[in-house]
Design a protein that fits this description.
Largest interface: A-B, 39 and 33 residues
Oligomer: heterodimer
Number of strands of chain A: 11
Radius of gyration of chain B: 17 Å
Strand content of chain A: 5-15%
Helix content of chain B: 25-40%
CATH architecture of chain A: Orthogonal Bundle
CATH class of chain B: Mainly Alpha
Low-confidence stretches of chain B: 13-21
Strand order of the largest sheet of chain A: 10-9-11
CATH superfamily of chain A: Cytochrome c-like domain
Distance between the termini of chain A: 44 Å
Number of helices of chain B: 5
Helix content of chain A: 25-40%
CATH architecture of chain B: Orthogonal Bundle
Largest sheet of chain A: 3 strands, mixed
CATH superfamily of chain B: Cytochrome c-like domain
Low-confidence stretches of chain A: 1-23
Radius of gyration of chain A: 20 Å
Structural class of chain B: mainly alpha
CATH topology of chain A: Cytochrome Bc1 Complex, Chain D, domain 2
Shape of chain B: globular
Strand content of chain B: under 5%
Order of helices and strands of chain B: HHHHH
Structural class of chain A: alpha+beta
Shape of chain A: globular
Number of helices of chain A: 11
CATH topology of chain B: Cytochrome Bc1 Complex, Chain D, domain 2
Chain lengths: ~280, ~160
Amino acid sequence: MNKYLKIAAAAVACATVLGVGGLMADPINETLTIDGQEMVSRTKAPEGHPFDEVYSGWLFRTEETRALQTDTFNNPAMLGVEVGEAIWNTVDGKEGKSCASCHGDAAESMKGIGASYPKWDKDANRPINIELQINKCRENNMGAEPYPFDKGGQKELTAYIKHQSLGTPVKIDLSQGELQSWWDKGKELYYTRNGQLNLACSNCHEDLMGKMIRADHLSQGQINGFPTYRLKSGGLVSVHNRFRGCIRDVRASFPKAFSDELMALEVYVTWRGTGLSVETPGVRQ
Amino acid sequence: MRASLHSAVAGLGLAIAIASGATAAEVAPADVKFTEDNTVEASLTGTPGDPAKGREVFADRRLGNCLACHANTDMKDQLFHGDVGPSLDGVASRWNEVQLRAILVDSKKVFTDATVMPGFYTLNVGINVREESVGKTIISAQDVEDVVAYLATLKE
């Protein structure tokens, strides 16, 4: 080892010690309760996971932001969820049906459903998430146009459906169809360096989890609160929008929403949050 | 090369230098020479770095954006310094200029591929670079020299 490398190694070691010692590096040790219902916001990671424990992004946010999620009355995203409820009950398309025409009361028919997506879609021969499931239903059963990405109520209806699983631990079944191979592909993408800034998802959300990038406390990048309310943009943000935003931030060209790449990533990242409660709609910075 | 072509090339170089504000001696990203000791000995431009400009590049979110990852007491008027990398207080007492230049140009050559620090004057980057950044470095050769000059002022 040459002398400069030795100095470098010493500096890195020193920084590591300081980083681990800093209290700010840790997610908060609190339990998230929403309207008195306890959420699983910290739990043992599934087998094969790089972390021992998985943490909800809620644990990394400021006290003020965290407080917004503990009471649905204060949660600014609930307005969007209410819009979603109205859509659920509104007739649309040539068949004269609403979601409720077939599925009735979402509180019963959709309970727990959002915690097990993405699923394998035999017809499309690829994974399907809530957004695509809504579109499939609209086209096949309602005679309605599919929603364009993030438009027409897609975020609100997705949030409403996932909200029916509030508290249910995330668990996807990778034995369905070829879901495992999509998980493999998603994992590969997760660890691939992208863009001019040359960063992979894993760099920030695994290697640097708990560190600060300016005022942003790096979380594990869990998606159990999506669609989530972002104070930065003042509205609901979908998972694929957030994926694209992260990829854009490292100065890479970003794939289309619901593309094979982002569906594979959703399968893999959802698995990384196995056991965490669905928090939809979460509130983040 | 014939003498006339020589002067034509030199003239073109000068014209480009005047147009872009760079010098004809600017080293292209792929031509930056790293020594065995992980240093870059020669200036990338031949123009001495300006510490005041370097301080601006350091802070500019579209250029160095160094505060994203590093704390720097010299900029304590700005809130929220990152802690991904080490604090840069006294950095010039730990690294000399030829080492700092190497780290800025391509930190992966100094710290191995495992580092998360981007290389600021290299085309050795990630896949799927966005269209407007293809073939471009994060900052210019002169920006590197200016930031090196600024960092050299941060002594213990």
